[in-house]
Specification:
The protein has about 170 residues and is mainly α. Helix content is about 55%, strand content about 0%.
Length: about 170
């Protein structure tokens, strides 16, 4: 089965429109964007499913004639997840409308303070970087490192194990 270019274009448009709608501050547009993304994911799974075939429980002798049940199971899972998240978003939209007569997400003082603090911290971190830090190739600058050595089973006798071992009676070695 060859995939129709129309299905691929529709899937790409649904993904693009869904991502664009989810970037808005309105919860209703976020819900619409999420629904578009869910439908695009279902269409994607339909496209990669391949050629339709006989159901596996009909007892087809050759496995080439059977359809793959995995994309079908993934599609059902995507439908259930989309439904559950949509119901949750609808509850959020309803509660937001009850509280503020709007479904837009506004920045509060704490969000603005955190954003400004992050900008200040980033500038301070940029000031602390020196040329010596850029030349370091490891986090362990002053530690002497050696090559990794693979041990053979004959080398295990040479290893000294000084870890304490619990013995019967509570005695330690």
């Amino acid at each position: 089965m060859t995939v129709s270019l129309t299905l691929v274009v529709i899937m790409a448009v649904l993904f693009a429109a869904g991502v664009y709608a989810m970037l808005e501050r309105s919860l209703t547009r976020v819900l619409i964007g999420f629904l578009l993304l869910g439908n695009a994911a279902n269409l994607f799974l339909l496209i990669v499913m391949g050629a339709p075939g006989v159901a596996p429980f009909f007892g087809a002798a050759e496995p080439e004639g059977m359809s793959d049940p995995l994309p079908q199971a993934l599609t059902l899972t995507a439908i259930v997840i989309t439904f559950a998240v949509s119901a949750f978003l609808l509850a959020l939209i309803y509660r937001s409308w009850q509280l503020g007569q709007a479904d837009t997400v506004e920045d509060d003082e704490a969000d603005i303070e955190v954003r400004e603090r992050a900008i200040e911290d980033e500038e301070q971190m940029d000031d602390e970087i020196t040329e010596a830090d850029d030349d370091a190739t490891t986090d362990f600058v002053d530690d002497a490192t050696g090559p990794i050595v693979a041990l053979h089973h004959r080398d295990l006798d040479a290893i000294i194990d000084d870890a304490p071992v619990d013995r019967p009676g509570g005695e330690r070695r």
